[in-house]
């Protein structure tokens, strides 16, 4: 166990135990050590006593009467001690020494076993111990570098100052200084003109030490407290002696340290101001770009000019999808980033005591949100219009194609009919030919009646195309009109020919009934087959399973009629076979074709085969369409299931992330609901992250601990009972009381609470946000830079003048920040000004928004 010195404490450098451990066990070595300590401490005392016009020769003898000891304390403390006794008696000396010791004790120093009698008696150990205590208290203890103090602070200061120098590595206050380069580096760092550091050599410690000691004594007024030979010749130089000497360098250069501190403070403030100005410029540009994009996009979304073709409308739909996929998402991110930048900028301005940022007119976050809402409204209306237009064009294209098919079939059927009806062949025909013409005409009338429905369908389709505003309606109307006019002409010609044939009927004999029967039965059957082929080849557009099932049921009904139709076909063919048998049997002279109709068995068989081929094709088309509709139904159900899952999930995440999520419009479709909900979730998450980052920024900048921040958050949440993210006035008052604020229920308390509310709720909305609450608590619990502090820093750089010169700014500040100040500082107009003087006071107030910059 370590032994404790009764006088000096454990391991004091002057205690016998310490001396023995250091190798000073003999009386000779003790004497040598005390001589070295005596020289160092005497030199230190004289460096201060010279300021009072005196000095000491022998440290044990000259402090015995207490007079110079009291004078030394007055010089180094800057305070007046009690009036000393001027008597020569022992009691007077003890009284003076006691006054000095009492003053040392009043500074918080514990004097262990050091009494006035030992000092008066000239006890060397006690006297040296007392002087070391004074050095510790007044020369070393007040040294503070980055929250370290005394020995650690002095060591850190030395390390900082000598870091750029080669062969210098300060780790302690003994062997790190033996080569003398540490002392030279300290001098060169602050006064480079005094020492040519490049010529010093590490292997020549005597020259290095003597150079440092001589320069310090001659130019820095630091007495020579150490001996170069003692330091070089000692394995471990005395730590306290070197600390005492090094502390003299610290105090000698403290003025430069103050200037450096002042320059650092100004650089910090200017850097904050420059960063804030850049953030403001970035916000203005981003807001302008986003608003300009919205301004250009809304007219495009509000354009409801329809296109005439499906291809053009499909291109519009593709453009809209590109807008959704490619153009809008980056703008959503820009809008979110804009809000984040605005909140971050406001937080940094509050933390640096700057006035809040007010964007240009029309570029507030609320203005951007309003413009974005208008964009969303235009987008929703545009999408609905596009879908309706595409459905309309699909219907129009289908009707137009159907019109063309029916018109083409009708026109093909009517081709040559007018010429046929206008023939006067009955005038020279034989009786049999007349009867044949009459029967043929009757068959034509039957065929004409059968085509009446097709003409009516063509007219109905044309009417519907007109009602739906089909772009090619003029050509449709013209074609329909030609068909109707031709139909009327055919009717008139048919009536006229019928009357002519009936007038000559009496002149005619019989006509082959079989031909007539064939013609009469073949014509409707042929018309039925043509209608069947037309229906089987008709395109269909369905959107639901029910619609395709209806078409399939109708097709099954049609297939059920095929057996009867086949019987009819066989019967018609049987008539033709019977005609052929009669012709062959009776050798009838005919032209070889049925005079009553152009339909022949080959045509009937060909069309019948065509119908039989189209039936399975129709079956396959219906089956494929049915499968497609089933797949669509499955996809719709799958979408509904996923939407039912993702919708509540998004809503839950939005409620967790923020209580500020806007309700989605009820008119949105499920897909729109999910898409907009997803965009709002991303925005809410980004806002929450930004809020947390601002809280961290506030905590770090204001010096708030995590425990304090957690306490503030818990108190705020406790009184935010409706989870709205804000507190009412009474809730906020209760929250402050819970945190220890004394707000009495009287006029004074109400005035104090009104003052606090004007800080946290400057817009008088009656609500306090968490960010405003944190800013207020930060302001109450932490210190920040102020305009007065910045002015004080500039005054240090200016050498206590009321103005500062451009050269002084360039000498003390980094180039970019020096030029920043010079460009913005107004000329100094005071009576003590000189040419080129700059007003740093108005500049300092402008940095904090107290005047214009």
Q: What features would you describe in this structure?
A:
With 853 residues, the chain is mainly α. It folds into 6 domains: 29-253, Calponin-like domain (Actin-binding Protein, T-fimbrin, domain 1); 275-396, Methane Monooxygenase Hydroxylase, Chain G, domain 1 (Up-down Bundle), CATH 1.20.58; 398-506, Methane Monooxygenase Hydroxylase, Chain G, domain 1 (Up-down Bundle); 521-639, Up-down Bundle (Methane Monooxygenase Hydroxylase, Chain G, domain 1), CATH 1.20.58.60; 708-778, Recoverin, domain 1 (Orthogonal Bundle); 787-847, Recoverin, domain 1, CATH 1.10.238.10. Helix content is 70%, strand content 2%. A two-stranded antiparallel sheet has the order 1-2. A two-stranded antiparallel sheet has the order 3-4. Strands 5-6 form a two-stranded antiparallel ribbon. Strand 1 and strand 2 form a beta hairpin. Mean pLDDT is 81; it is low at 1-30, 507-511 and 658-668. This is Actinin, alpha 1.
């Amino acid at each position: 166990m370590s032994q404790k010195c009764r006088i000096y404490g454990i391991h004091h450098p002057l205690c016998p135990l310490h001396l023995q451990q250091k190798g000073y066990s003999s009386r000779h070595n003790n004497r040598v050590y005390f001589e070295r300590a005596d020289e160092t401490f005497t030199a230190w005392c004289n460096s201060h006593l010279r300021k009072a016009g005196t000095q000491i020769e022998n440290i044990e003898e000259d402090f015995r009467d207490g007079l110079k000891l009291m004078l030394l304390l007055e010089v180094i403390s800057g305070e007046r001690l009690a009036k000393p006794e001027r008597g020569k008696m022992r009691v007077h000396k003890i009284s003076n020494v006691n006054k000095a010791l009492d003053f040392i004790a009043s500074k918080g120093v514990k004097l262990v076993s050091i009494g006035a009698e030992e000092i008066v008696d000239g006890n060397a150990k006690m006297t040296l111990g007392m002087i070391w205590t004074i050095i510790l208290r007044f020369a070393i203890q007040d040294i503070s570098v980055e929250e370290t103090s005394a020995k650690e602070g002095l060591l850190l200061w030395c390390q900082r100052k000598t870091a750029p120098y080669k062969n210098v590595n300060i780790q302690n206050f003994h062997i790190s200084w033996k080569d003398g380069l540490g002392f030279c580096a300290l001098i060169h760092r602050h006064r480079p003109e005094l020492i040519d550091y490049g010529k010093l050599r590490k292997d020549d410690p005597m020259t290095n030490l003597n150079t440092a000691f001589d320069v310090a004594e001659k130019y820095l007024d630091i007495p020579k407290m150490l001996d170069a030979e003692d330091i070089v010749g000692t394995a471990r130089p005395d730590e306290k002696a070197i600390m005492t000497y090094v502390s003299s360098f610290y105090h000698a250069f403290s003025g430069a340290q103050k200037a450096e501190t002042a320059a650092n403070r100004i650089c910090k403030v200017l850097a904050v101001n420059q960063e804030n100005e850049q953030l403001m410029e970035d916000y203005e540009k981003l807001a302008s770009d986003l608003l300009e994009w919205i301004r250009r996009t809304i007219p495009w979304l509000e354009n409801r000019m329809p296109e005439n073709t499906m291809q053009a409308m499909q291109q519009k739909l593709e453009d809209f999808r590109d807008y959704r996929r490619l153009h809008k998402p980056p703008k959503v991110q820009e809008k979110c980033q804009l809000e984040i930048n605005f909140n971050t900028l406001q937080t940094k301005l509050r933390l640096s005591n700057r006035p809040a940022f007010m964007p240009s007119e029309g570029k507030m976050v609320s203005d951007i949100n309003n413009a974005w809402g208008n964009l969303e409204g235009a987008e929703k209306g545009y999408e609905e219009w596009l879908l309706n237009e595409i459905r309309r064009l699909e219907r129009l294209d289908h009707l137009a194609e159907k019109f063309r098919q029916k018109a083409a079939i009708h026109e093909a059927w009517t081709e040559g009919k007018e010429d046929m009806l206008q023939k006067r062949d009955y005038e020279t025909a034989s009786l049999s030919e007349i009867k044949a013409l009459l029967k043929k005409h009757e068959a034509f009338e039957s065929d004409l009646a059968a085509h009446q429905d097709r003409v009516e369908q063509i007219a109905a389709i044309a009417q519907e195309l007109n009602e739906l505003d089909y772009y090619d309606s003029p050509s449709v109307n013209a074609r329909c009109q030609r068909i109707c006019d031709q139909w009327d002409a055919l009717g008139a010609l048919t009536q006229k020919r019928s009357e002519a044939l009936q007038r000559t009927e009496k002149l005619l004999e019989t006509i082959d009934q079989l031909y007539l029967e064939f013609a009469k039965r073949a014509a409707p059957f042929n018309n039925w087959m043509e209608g069947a082929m037309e229906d089987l080849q008709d395109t269909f557009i369905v959107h639901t399973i029910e619609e395709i099932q209806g078409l399939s049921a109708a097709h099954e009904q049609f297939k059920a009629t095929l057996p009867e139709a086949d019987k009819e076909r066989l019967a018609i063919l049987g008539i033709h076979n019977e005609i052929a048998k009669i012709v062959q049997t009776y050798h009838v002279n005919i032209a070889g074709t049925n005079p009553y109709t152009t339909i022949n068995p080959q045509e009937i068989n060909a069309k019948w085969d065509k119908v039989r081929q189209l039936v399975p094709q129709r079956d396959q088309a219906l089956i494929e369409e049915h499968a497609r509709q089933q797949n669509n139904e499955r996809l719709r159900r799958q979408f509904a299931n996923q939407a039912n899952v993702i919708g509540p999930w998004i809503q839950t995440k939005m409620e967790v992330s923020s209580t500020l999520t806007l309700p989605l419009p009820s008119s949105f479709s499920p897909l729109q609901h999910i898409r907009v909900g997803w965009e709002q979730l991303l925005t809410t998450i980004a806002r929450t992250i930004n809020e947390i980052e601002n809280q961290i920024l506030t905590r770090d900048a204001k010096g708030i601990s995590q425990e304090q921040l957690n306490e503030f958050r818990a108190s705020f949440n406790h009184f935010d009972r409706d989870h709205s993210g804000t507190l009412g006035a009474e809730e906020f008052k209760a929250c402050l009381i819970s945190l220890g604020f004394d707000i009495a229920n009287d006029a004074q308390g109400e005035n104090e609470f009104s003052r606090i509310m004007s800080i946290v709720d400057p817009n008088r909305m009656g609500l306090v946000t968490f960010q405003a609450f944190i800013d207020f608590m930060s302001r109450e619990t932490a210190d920040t830079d102020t305009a007065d502090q910045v002015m004080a820093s500039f005054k240090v750089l200016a050498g206590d003048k009321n103005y500062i010169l451009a050269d002084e700014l360039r000498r003390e500040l980094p180039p970019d920040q020096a030029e920043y100040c010079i460009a913005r500082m107004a000329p100094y107009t005071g009576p003590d000004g000189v040419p080129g003087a700059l007003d740093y006071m108005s500049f300092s107030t402008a940095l904090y928004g107290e005047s214009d910059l």
